[in-house]
Amino acid sequence: MRHTLPIVPQFYVTAPQPCPYLDGRMERKLFTALQGDQAQRLNDTLSKQGFRRSQNVLYRPSCAECSACLSARIRVADFKPNRSQRKVLKAAAHLHRNATSPWATEDQYALFRRYLDARHADGGMADMDVFEFAAMVEETPIKSRVIEYSRPAGPGETGTPLTVVSLTDVFDDGLSMVYSFYDPDFTALSLGTYAILDHINIAREAGLPYVYLGYWVPGSRKMGYKAGFSALEIFKAGKWVDIGTPADHHAELHPLSVDPIAEQVARINLPEARSLRD
Questions:
Q1: Prediction pTM value
Q2: Model confidence over 94-114: pLDDT tens digits?
Q3: Comparing C-alpha atoms, which of 72, 56, 66 is closest to residue 16?
């Protein structure tokens, strides 16, 4: 007789901290360690249920005040760029893509520092040093890639300056954009949007059905841009649904939308580790 054994991770909850998406609210996360020879399977399974990876940890917002952080992904086969996005693709067509192993470089860190100083000087990553940056990129127990985009040298420059970088995880059903940053001197090119559009192309080339974008938050200006992509799904009430009209999801901002932690954990589907025979 064949028996299947589930992977049984331990789940924990972080202490509340100020929410980076909604002013005046507190954020709390449900998380588990991502390690061992079953890390890829656990990551693939939990990412389909709204979890995200940060180094060797999988987490999902589990706040006491709302349930507004909704995992978002694009259906690659159904995606059609709008007029603005087609302009972005055209304007950035001179960029060269290079996919590498998850290995941090000095050029990446220099670009990362310039991006933070210009765009997120007061954010939670503002004080990250080169060693912490290397850990963010390199400490991954699953299949990950660094997608670099470089441009032709301008006046007084040499080589091909690094312009956009995305740390990207490879799932069994898609690509997950863990973290992206870009040259703040080229904001007019909408490089963040370009990176998403090109990841859709990469996924299509690889035959992967989804591009995972992290969390979309109704009512958050920081996350609002994600709703501008067609064929966008969100993970809500335990299943993936089309986002529809963004304003229809404001009920998730209410504290009564939150289920107890024990119920949230009980509803998590876990992968089977292996089969045993009597």
A1: 0.92
A2: 999 999 999 999 999 999 999
A3: 66
